[in-house]
């Protein structure tokens, strides 16, 4: 494919990115709202447009197991799932990271049951927060396409060797038709040169993976895992920088919008960021000194960049799309950010809103209410816990 | 920015209408979104699809609450829902209906402009069945001018192939000429 601008569904754009990445193995089990991604990939393979093994597994547990096997022999590997699928996968999901198996997952974020819901929130990714995957959040279709490709470069870097989850809001992005700029196949190939894995399984060079770990070694193995995720950070930046150099589209672990003189900021992760920017533009016209801070890289958490963006503000209004039940300190994002700023000079107060659960629409009006109400709460010192926005009595 | 809401029933292709409009707008260098009212698809149940078109990148990730244009594929829906809900002042309601625009406008208190076309008849004559999603795009194009007849050709032929695509285009063009736009 030559460089083309097209109106397509974001799920289709993901499948096209995977085709351009020339993956070797796709193993996935269909689940709403991820389905269109996998359906299109199976078509691309069946039509001979993608020379890959498409493994139609019997469950997500098997999907992740196949992906581990495939990554272990050094094959470029992709999968995709949502919510209950991720839950079923979770046993092997942790193992993929621990065994340093590079693969890319498009995670179409969806609420975990129960009540059974097919709609969007972030409860699925938060369930596996501590697995040791690199976690990226995207806001729109173009960012999704770009980051799927960047993710392969991050994952397969010999200095990284980790699985990467690209999080996109289910339905809100997966089922959206919008303009996507596809890059040229050759550009993608040059961006993703095939890198043979150092310790790939091979009959001529036997190695053991996923061994039994006695207490004498488990601690060290965990530290090794921690250092692996931590040390991936500069290579994640490199992957984004190179993509920016090639395409002119730049990504950072923390991104800011109209924050230069912002006294207070709304903090978002995922597609929230777009509507937030729209509303911040409106509020700026009314004289409000407000900006948006967007967390793009969730793991490894960009501590320094976040602090740089946050310190000196009066308050942050943090948006969450999941609840930490009984945590009593806010949603998972707010809890993390409060911890990141604890005891720092110039730390803003944090007001936390949980909204958009199970795809409940968060409109421009809602964002406006949240920002203005959050600012007022901060001024009054009402900064504990969280507010479940729009909760009916 | 132009915001569009399309009412239909599951299986009538409301989402396809929104998609085809958005794709043709993107093909002409603009920005667009098309998306369903997210959820399981239930044949026959009232469904809504949305579309936005703008000269600059669209950043809103929420439903359309205040449409400029509302398209109604199934005339029977007006007994179940109020298609004019939230419509912007000066907006236009485009209905598949045998009625004149003035009759429909009167039943809505005269608050919105109305365009009508007997899309069922056109679709039955051209396509052999009353699936009006492409036919109604013809009325939409005439009433809004947001995309041109030439712009929709490519997306329709891409979606339906040349044989069925040409028949859909004929229905669409007839609706373009036959739609009656009220004052």
Question: Your description of this structure?
Answer:
The complex is a heterodimer of chains A (393) and B (183). In chain A, 41% of the residues lie in helices and 19% in strands. Chain A has 393 residues and is of the alpha/beta class. In chain A, helix 6 links the parallel strand 6 (134-137) and strand 7 (164-169). In chain A, the strands form 3 sheets. A 7-stranded mixed beta sheet of chain A has the order 3-2-4-5-7-6-12, with helices on both faces. Chain A has a 6-stranded mixed beta sheet with strand order 9-11-10-13-14-15, sandwiched between helices. Chain A folds into 2 domains: 4-247, Thiamin diphosphate (ThDP)-binding fold, Pyr/PP domains (Rossmann fold, 3-Layer(aba) Sandwich); 254-388, Rossmann fold, CATH 3.40.50.920. The mean pLDDT of chain A is 97. The termini of chain A are far apart. Chain B is an alpha/beta fold and 183 residues long. Chain B has one domain: Pyruvate-ferredoxin oxidoreductase, PFOR, domain III (Pyruvate-ferredoxin Oxidoreductase, domain 3), CATH 3.40.920. Chain B has a 7-stranded mixed beta sheet with strand order 2-3-1-4-5-6-7, with helices on both faces. In chain B, helix 2 (101-107) links the parallel strand 5 (92-96) and strand 6. The radius of gyration of chain B is 15 Å and the shape is globular. Chain B starts with a strand and ends with a strand. The model of chain B has no long low-confidence stretch (mean pLDDT 94). At the A-B interface, strand 1, strand 8 and helix 10 of A face helix 1 and strand 2 of B.
């Amino acid at each position: 494919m030559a460089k083309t601008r097209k109106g397509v569904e974001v799920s289709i754009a993901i499948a096209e990115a995977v085709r351009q990445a020339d993956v070797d193995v796709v193993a996935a089990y269909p689940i709403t709202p991820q389905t269109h991604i996998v359906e299109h990939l199976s078509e691309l393979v069946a039509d001979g447009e993608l020379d890959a093994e498409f493994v139609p597994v019997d469950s997500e547990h098997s999907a992740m197991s196949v992906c581990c096997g495939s990554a272990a022999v050094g094959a470029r590997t992709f999968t995709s799932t949502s919510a209950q699928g991720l839950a079923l996968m979770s046993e092997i999901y942790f193992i993929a990271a621990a065994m340093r198996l590079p693969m890319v997952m498009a995670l179409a974020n969806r609420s975990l049951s129960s009540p059974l819901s097919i709609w969007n929130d972030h409860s699925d990714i938060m369930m596996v927060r501590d697995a040791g995957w690199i976690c990226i959040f995207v806001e729109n279709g173009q960012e999704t396409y770009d980051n799927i490709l960047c993710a392969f470069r991050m994952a397969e870097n010999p200095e990284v060797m980790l699985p990467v989850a690209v999080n996109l809001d289910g339905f809100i992005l997966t089922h959206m038709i919008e303009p996507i700029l596809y890059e040229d196949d050759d550009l993608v190939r040059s961006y993703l040169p095939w890198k043979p894995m150092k310790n790939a399984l091979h009959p001529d060079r036997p190695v053991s993976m996923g061994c039994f770990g006695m207490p004498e070694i488990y601690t060290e193995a965990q530290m090794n895992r921690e250092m692996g995720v931590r040390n991936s950070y500069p290579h994640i930046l490199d992957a984004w920088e190179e993509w920016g150099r090639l395409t002119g589209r730049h990504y950072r672990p923390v991104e800011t919008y109209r924050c230069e003189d912002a006294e207070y900021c709304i903090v978002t992760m995922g597609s929230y960021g777009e509507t937030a920017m729209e509303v911040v533009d409106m509020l700026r016209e009314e004289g409000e000194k407000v900006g948006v801070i967007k967390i793009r890289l969730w793991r490894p958490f960009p501590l320094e960049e976040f602090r740089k963006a946050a310190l000196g503000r009066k308050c942050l209004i943090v948006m969450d799309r999941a609840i930490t039940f009984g945590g009593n300190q806010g949603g998972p994002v707010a809890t993390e950010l409060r911890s990141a700023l604890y005891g720092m000079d110039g730390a803003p107060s944090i007001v936390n809103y949980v909204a958009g659960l199970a795809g409940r629409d968060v409109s421009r009006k809602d964002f406006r209410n949240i920002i203005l109400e959050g600012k007022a709460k901060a001024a009054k010192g009402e900064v504990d816990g969280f507010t479940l926005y729009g909760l009916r009595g | 920015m132009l915001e569009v809401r399309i009412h239909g029933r599951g299986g009538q292709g409301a989402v396809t209408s929104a998609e085809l409009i958005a794709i043709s707008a993107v093909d002409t260098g603009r920005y667009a979104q098309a998306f369903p009212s997210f959820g399981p698809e239930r044949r026959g149940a009232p469904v809504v699809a949305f579309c936005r078109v703008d000269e600059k990148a669209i950043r809103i990730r929420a439903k359309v609450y205040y449409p400029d244009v509302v398209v109604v594929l199934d005339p029977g829906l007006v007994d179940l829902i109020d298609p004019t809900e939230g419509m912007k002042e000066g907006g236009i309601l485009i209905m598949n209906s045998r009625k004149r625009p003035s009759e429909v406008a009167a039943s809505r208190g005269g608050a919105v402009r109305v365009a009508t076309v007997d899309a069922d008849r056109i679709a039955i004559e051209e396509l052999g069945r009353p699936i009006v999603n492409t036919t109604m795009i013809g009325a939409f194009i005439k009433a809004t001018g947001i995309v041109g007849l030439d712009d929709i050709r490519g997306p329709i032929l891409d979606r339906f192939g040349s044989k069925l695509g040409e028949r859909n285009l004929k229905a669409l063009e007839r609706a373009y000429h036959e739609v009656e736009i009220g004052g």
